[in-house]
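Researcher: Checking consistency across runs. Here is Peptidoglycan glycosyltransferase MrdB again:
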Amino acid sequence: MNLTDKHTIWQSIKSHIAVFDGALSLIMFLILSVGIVTLYSAGIDFPGRVEDQLRNILVAFVIMWVAANIPPQTLMRFAIPVYALGVSLLIAVAVFGIVKKGSRRWINIGMVIQPSEIMKIAMPLMLAWYFQKREGMINWRDYLVAALLLVLPVGLIIRQPDLGTGTLVLAAGFYVIFLAGLSWRILIGLAVAVGASLPILWSVLHDYQRQRVMMLIDPTSDPLGKGFHIIQSTIAVGSGGIFGKGWLKGTQAHLEFIPERTTDFIFAVFSEEFGLIGNGVLLFLYILLIGRGMMIAVNAPTMFTRLLAGAITLIFFTYAFVNMGMVSGILPVVGVPLPLMSYGGTALVTLGLGAGILMSIQRHRKLIQT
C-alpha cells in the first residue's frame, strides 16, 4: 500500500467520523459508560445483560451515524410518510395486535415491533414540518390542527394501554407546538382546562393506573403490593447517603429488593452505590447533554430544524425527569427508562436516532455571512 492509498483511506475515515458532533458524542459516551458500570452491578444476577447492552449500543451507534448523514431537507420529505406509517401501525395494533401482560402494544410484520416507539420521532418530525410550511402565517387554527395531529396517535397509544410511551409522545409533540410560538395565555387556559377535567380523566383511567397514582400519595397502604416499587426505590436512593455504599455494594439491589433494577429502576441502584455526589455528577452530564442539544437548536438555520432539534432535546429531558421522579417517589410509576442508562434496545435506538438527527442539523446548518 503506497502513501496515496493510505492518505485516501485516512481521508475516508475522517469524513465518516466528521459526521459526529464532538461535544454531544463525548457527553453521550460518558453517560453510556456510567450506565454500563451501573448495569454490571445491577445485572450481576442476570448473566449476559452487559453483553446484550453493548450490542444495543452498537446498533444505536449505527442508527445514529446513518441519521447524522441524512440532510434535514431529506428528513422533511419523510415527515408525512413516517407519521402516516406510525398511525397506520397503531391502528393495526388496536385491531389485531399481540397481547402481552394485558397490553396490546406489539404487532408481527415478519418481526415483532412496538409501533408506538416510532411516534417518539415521527410526532415532532411531522409537527415541525407542518409549522415550517406555515411559517409566517401561523394562527390559532394551525395550533388546533397540530393538536389534532398529536391527539390521534397519543389516544391510540394510551388505549393499548401504555401511559409511559403515551406521555413521551405527548410531550414530544407539545414541545414542538410550544416552541412554534404558542402563547402563555393559551397555555394557562389549557392548564385550567386540564385541572377542571381531572375528575373525567380519573374516571377513564385503568384501575392499575389509578392505583399507581394512589401509591404515589401513600405507598405504605400496600407495602408488599402496589407500593413495593416506590418504597424500595426511595429506600435505596436515601440509603446511599452523600458518598454511596460503593460499587457492587448496594444491599437493596443485591438482596433483590429493587424490582426492574436493570431497566426502569436502575437510577435507584446508581443512587445507592454512588450517593449524592454520584447523582450530582450524573445530573451534570444530563444538563450538559440538554444544553448542547439546545445550542444546536438555537443555531439551526430553519424553523423546521429549530423545532425538531428543540423537541428532540427536550425528549431527553423528559426521559430523565420522569424516570428520576418516579424512582424518587415524586411521580407515579409509568415505565419510562433512564436515557442511555437503562438496559434495553428499543429506547436506546430511539434516542440514538434522535441524537443522530441533532448531529445532522448541526452538520448541515447554513453559514450566514454578515
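Researcher: Does this match what you'd expect to see?
Model: One thing to look at in this run: Residues 22-369 form one domain.
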